[in-house]
Amino acid sequence: MKKHIGRFSVYIRPFSYCLDLFIINSLAYALLLQVLNGIYYHVFLSFSWIVISWNVGFYEVYRFTKVSEIFEKIVKQYLVFIIINFAYIGYFIKFSEPSIIVKFITLATIFIAFCKLFIYYFLRKIRVVFGGNFRKVVIVGSETGTKQLSDFFNENPNYGYKLVKTFNINNNRKDIINQCFEFVLRNKIDEIYCVLNDLTTTDIDNFIDFTDNNLKTLKFIPGDNEVQVRNFKQVYYGYIPIFSLRNIPLDILENKIIKRIFDLLFSIFVIVVVLSWLTPLLAILIKIESRGPIFFIQKRNGLNYHEFDCYKFRSMAINEKAHLEQVSKNDPRITKIGKIIRKTSIDELPQFFNVFLGHMSVVGPRPHMVSHTEMYAKKVDKFMVRHFIKPGITGLAQTKGYRGEVETEKDIINRVKYDIYYLENWSLILDVKIVFMTVINAIKGEEKAY
């Protein structure tokens, strides 16, 4: 399973945001008249820059992005930013010296553009000189079909892709594909590129299943026929069109930030307003009834299959099977206070500490015990796709009745279906709706809450 991919983009974008906002506000303070240097205008500068950048895609610069596209983003950002500033200053501050504003915004944009291009070329140099920030890839297809992309990877190491092997499809296509799968797992390959024209529909489905179940990235070199009938997300490597199969909204930095802010605010509220007084009260009740710790801590699998400690209020007597067996109806291990807190889902509230620490989200696929994750990964197709995003305290599957004990194979299959739907259709509105439905279900009481 994929444990970690060495890539820096998760740190680069937040750093770029902070650097650009620092440049804008510093230049505003140094160049603009005192009448413009109020706190409200600086807040407006920062907020408007971020909102415009989200809409323009200013920070959506990837290793395969062309320099011409970067300049296009810079020009768009500059023009919209200057128009918005004139609108704000003219309406709220009644300032009528446009040359000062033009000078400030032009200089700020030049400085930011310089930093942006410096980071872009610096990362390219690092990839070539130090071999860092590389993604290991393989290509599958005919010799003619793979040649163009193979040449691109070999001739452009600054893009950060290391072509490890090319698998040429011939008459023994089934054996070649199986060899590819074994090679990918054995050599910890990050991405697989397939030539669509050289694969059958069955072959494509096999690659999709393999990459989904092993947390690998699958991309396609398009052919004329398949492009018309399949729903792909398109990017360009140089002039070569590349198609990605799965679109995950939470892969976009802006969406990650929005969801993280929501998680932090929600978790802080619950910790301060609820857990601050509920924890000592439950600690007394739990200790009175049975010996053992107040919290039950269990290893579970989260984002990218990483293990983390999941916190709950202890609802069972101490037993050796707590980390191996799910709770079932009328389970003798459950204490009296445990029945109450499990029925109302109060036992899950300490997981807001997991949310605060960044291990979990308020909403997402529910994490399973490590032993159960390994079992379901072998039995249930696409089970591992759930680990492309952070697990949640509640999720869409739980609001649809698939919470608690997995009694039949249908339970876990439907849970995975809802989790994948959530993963591919995330929005803040959907998160709020799921939280609301979870609260309603907890108040009403759920049949499988035991």
From TrEMBL:
Pfam families: Bac_transf, CoA_binding_3. Residues 259-443 form the Bacterial sugar transferase domain. InterPro entries: Bact_transf (IPR003362), EPS_sugar_tfrase (IPR017475). It is found in: Membrane. It comes from the Bacteria. Keywords: Membrane, Transferase, Transmembrane, Transmembrane helix. GO terms for cellular component: membrane. It is a multi-pass membrane protein. The chain crosses the membrane at residues 12-33, 39-62, 74-94, 100-123, 264-286. GO terms for molecular function: phosphotransferase activity, for other substituted phosphate groups. PANTHER family: COLANIC BIOSYNTHESIS UDP-GLUCOSE LIPID CARRIER TRANSFERASE (PTHR30576), UNDECAPRENYL-PHOSPHATE N-ACETYLGALACTOSAMINYL 1-PHOSPHATE TRANSFERASE-RELATED (PTHR30576:SF0). Belongs to the bacterial sugar transferase family. This is Putative colanic acid biosynthesis UDP-glucose lipid carrier transferase. It comes from Flavobacterium aciduliphilum.
